[in-house]
Amino acid sequence: MAAIAQAQPNIALVKYWGKRDATLNLPATGSLSITLDAPWTRTRVEFDASLRHDELRLNGAEDPAALARVSACLDLLRQRAGTARRARIDTRNHFPTAAGLASSASGFAALVVAADAALGLGLDRRTLSMLARRGSGSAARSLFGGFVGLDAGERDDGTDAIAQPLLDAAAWPLAVVIAVTSHRRKRVGSGVGMERSRRTSPFYPAWTHSAATDLAAARRAVQARDFAALAELSEHSCLKMHAVMQSSRPPLLYWNGATVDCMQRIRALREDAGEPVFFTVDAGPQVKAVCTPEAAPRVAAALAALPGVEQVLSSRLGEGARLLDDGETP
Ligand code: PMV
If you measure from the C-alpha of residue 190 to the centroid of ligand 1, how many angstroms do you get, rounded to a whole number? Predict the structure, then answer.
């Protein structure tokens, strides 16, 4: 009753910020993302009748802080399998330290794929994606590779809030350059931040009302491989989300000076130098530049030259979560 799975993080171009149901973790806004090919999370799950509690190890060390969320997600799979067996979870993040990449997305995606196989459930991707969403909203998207859409849905049970693959990584092979501007842990996590925005930002209703239009337009841009349209929509969605964050009380100001400098540099690269590149920023100070693979080395060099940029990482687009062979250690 053991299996190993691998998943990669994804980066939203049309952002999810806010929940319409906190218990089922249903998003108030649909989103569109790209799955990366590196870094990865590898997770081994083993159900063992002799265990009294779930045991979680992250990068070789026990991680009691994350255990409750992981156990709650595993409970959903245990219910389906009709078992109460506890599990030993060994997960490894092959991530540069605190690079501000969404390890919860790859973490919960790898977890559900491994647990499904270990329990012999054989659930389809759609269902696995819904289960990963219960752990972390963005994790629903890491079940699929390339370009992925996640609808907000309307039904109370969330059966219409599902992620779907839109376009394979190979069909539009873009690159992502990540400028790390701080290695410090963020003060307010996304779950707490979203709830604060929902309760206090005067812009929140406008944000949720305009999201479906943005998502539909971004889907069209992806289908048409229209880089200019996707660039405009992505930067708009990112800045609109940050306007909601910044207008929350107390404010959620995730940027530092270098974050703003990177955004300005990326705009100048596109508008003055004609580089095919645009930015996006999540609930943290790192800047993700999405560009063509040819432009990636020039974008990386331009961002690395800015004061306050501590590290620059590059990735291509990758596949969704998958099972690994027994021999591939987590
Ligand atoms: O699902 P979470 O808790 O990882 O929240 C994701 C929030 C953002 O990264 C800011 C936006 C997104 O759609 O990924």
Answer: 6
- pLDDT confidence of residue 103: 82
Tens digits of residue pLDDT in 57-69: 999 999 888 999 9
Does 163 share its domain with 189? no
CB burial class (10 A; 0-12, 13-18, 19+) of residue 160?
exposed
Rounded alpha-carbon distances, angstroms, from residue 191 to 25, 113, 142? 10, 23, 18
Per residue in 255-286, pLDDT (tens digit) is 999 999 999 999 999 999 999 999 999 999 99
Q: Cis omega before residue 173 (within 30°)? A: no
Q: How far is the CA of 102 from the centre of ligand 1 (A)?
A: 8
Tens-digit pLDDT profile for residues 144-182: 999 999 999 999 999 999 999 999 999 999 999 999 999
Task: Say yes or no: CB of residue 16 within 6 Å of ligand 1.
Answer: yes
Position 187 scores a pLDDT of 80
Residue whose Cα lies nearest atom 9 of ligand 1: it is: 282
Ligand 1 atom closest to Cα of residue 10: 14
User: How far, in Å, from the CA of 191 to the mean position of ligand 1?
Assistant: 9
Asked if residues 300 and 180 have their Cβ atoms less than 8 Å apart, the reply is: no
Report the CATH number at residue 191. 3.30.70.890
Is 140 inside a domain boundary?
Answer: yes
Which residue lies with its CA nearest to atom 8 of ligand 1?
282
Report if residue 98 sits inside a domain. yes
